[in-house]
Design a protein that fits this description.
The chain folds into 2 domains: about 10-25 and about 245-430, Enolpyruvate transferase domain (UDP-n-acetylglucosamine1-carboxyvinyl-transferase, Chain, Alpha-beta prism), CATH 3.65.10.10; about 30-225, Alpha-beta prism (UDP-n-acetylglucosamine1-carboxyvinyl-transferase, Chain), CATH 3.65.10. It has helices at about 30-40, 55-65, 95-105, 130-135, 175-180, 200-215, 250-255, 275-285, 315-325, 345-355, 385-400, 415-425; strands spanning about 10, 20, 45-50, 70, 80, 90, 110-115, 140, 150-155, 160-165, 190-195, 220, 225-230, 240, 260-265, 285-290, 295-300, 305-310, 330-335, 360-365, 365-370, 380, 400-405. It has a 4-stranded mixed β-sheet. Strands 4-5-3-14 form a 4-stranded mixed β-sheet. Strands 6-7-9-8 form a 4-stranded mixed β-sheet. The chain starts with 8 loop residues before the first strand and ends in a 13-residue tail after the last helix. By secondary structure, it is α/β, with parallel strands linked by helices. It is built from 12 helices and 23 strands.
Length: about 450
């Protein structure tokens, strides 16, 4: 079955009883792409073990290869050899924020022009602050005043660097982008934020952690200021943790069906935003226990409404909102105005698609108010957004007849998601076995 736009409509599996499964998650997209970029800037070859193989990470590998590095993705562990960065080159960003934001500061180090473009919706994602910051640090960028894709970075073999003030209230990636390349700039970078609070701070903490792992000196002692000193990037073999945000729909399955889901390899300490799921599922009525076998989430038969500030973990919003739509009382999700600039306007998209199934959802300036009501069968559009698909399949567990548009968009961070999700409902252990010990 297809929708009027020609996309396939995938029947979301319906659970007739409690879901009980062991889910082995693929590697973290955020960690994989940071590790690949730093490996390309490092002083010797290195290995990224347990790398996520998805559209976003393949785009990153292709981008770095186009700039002169060698990224061998033929095996389970990816081998990266740095090289003298050069242009000309063309970078396909797809819809990957980590590519469109992290790679331009590296491209400024190339000797020659590098053209950036991506999917149609990628041209609507905010890029202006990154481009303005690069110009302030001494790079040359041509964007015809758009502040968005497409644009060209005219690399001259080096960047002076120095101090720059930006407004990163739309995305933490603006900060991470400058920090990741900063040690290769003549004077390093001193990035200062002015504006509303930076969202998704765990992702900046992840960037700082990865830089320090590679021997880069970072001073983040002061609030809203990050200083990276100039110096070499040490080659380090990196083990990529499982992608904890991708656990959201699977842990949700335990809650909504009164089942039990185990995620092996869940780290005891991590900078990943997805670790907040342990608190969220507990607040909503489930139990979450972290032990030798991994994280075990059990549904208790109750699913409570939630009043929660998701500012630092906005990527979890679609799955958490779907849970709220099935809860026993109203919910208020706050602090997430910035996710209007993600793969799609997630607040507007969630309100629209939940409403199309009979849900009662009100958009606020920075979030959603959700009042559970009986839901109907029907199509659920994903807007080329993998997290929207996660919300749809959660609802499909308990609402027969939910049909997901373009479920293949989940390949952005989780290859074969549809097959894995179907196995979940059938009660099989699910997930790519090669990732079972990741983290």
């Amino acid at each position: 079955m297809t929708d009027p736009t020609g996309h396939d409509l995938w029947p979301a599996p319906h659970a007739d009883g409690p879901v009980r499964a062991v889910v082995r998650l693929p590697g973290s997209k955020s960690l994989t792409n940071r590790a690949l970029l730093l490996a390309a800037l490092s002083d010797a070859p290195s290995t990224v073990r347990g790398a996520l193989r998805s559209r976003d990470t393949t785009l990153m590998a292709d981008a770095l290869t186009g700039l002169g590095a060698t990224v061998d993705t033929s095996g389970a562990d990816w081998q990266v050899s740095p090289a003298t960065l050069h242009g000309p080159s063309t970078v396909d960003c797809g819809l990957a924020g980590t590519v469109m934001r992290f790679v331009p500061p590296v491209a400024a180090l190339c000797d020659g022009p590098v053209v950036f473009d991506g999917d149609p919706h990628a041209r609507t994602r905010p890029m202006g602050e990154v481009l303005r910051a690069l110009r302030a640090l001494g790079a040359v960028v041509e964007d015809e005043g758009r502040g968005a894709l497409p644009f060209t970075v005219l690399g001259s073999g080096g960047v002076p660097g120095g101090t720059v003030t930006i407004d990163a209230s739309a995305s933490s990636q603006f900060v991470s982008a400058l920090l990741l390349a900063g040690s290769a700039y003549d004077d390093g970078v001193d990035v200062r934020h002015e504006g509303e609070p930076v969202p998704s701070l765990p992702h900046i903490a992840m960037t700082v952690e990865q830089l320090r792992l590679h021997g880069v000196a970072v001073d983040d002692a002061a609030a809203d200021r990050w200083r990276v000193l100039p110096g070499p990037v040490r080659a380090v073999d990196v083990d990529v943790e499982p992608d904890l945000s991708n656990a959201a729909p699977f842990l949700a399955a335990a809650l909504v069906t009164g089942g039990r889901v185990t995620v092996p390899g869940w780290p005891s300490s991590t900078t990943q935003a997805g670790d907040a799921l342990r608190e969220i599922v507990t607040l909503m009525g489930g139990s979450a226990e972290l032990g030798p076998e991994g994280l075990v989430v059990t549904g208790t038969g109750a699913l409570h409404g939630l009043d929660y500030d998701l500012h630092d973990v906005g990527e979890l919003t679609p799955s958490v909102a779907a849970l709220c739509l099935l809860a026993d009382g109203p919910s208020h999700l706050r602090g997430i105005a910035h996710i209007r600039g993600h793969e799609t306007d997630r607040l507007g998209a969630l309100a629209t698609e939940f409403g199309s199934l009979g849900g009662h959802v009100t958009e606020t300036d920075d979030g959603l108010v959700i009042r559970p009501t009986p839901l109907d069968a029907g199509p659920f559009r994903t807007y080329a957004d993998h997290r929207m698909a996660h919300a749809a399949v959660i609802l499909g567990l308990v609402v027969p007849g939910v049909r997901v548009e373009d479920v293949g968009t989940t390949a952005k961070t989780f290859p074969d998601f549809a097959a894995v999700w179907s196995s979940l409902v059938s009660g099989d252990d699910v997930g790519p076995v090669r990732h079972a010990a990741a983290g």
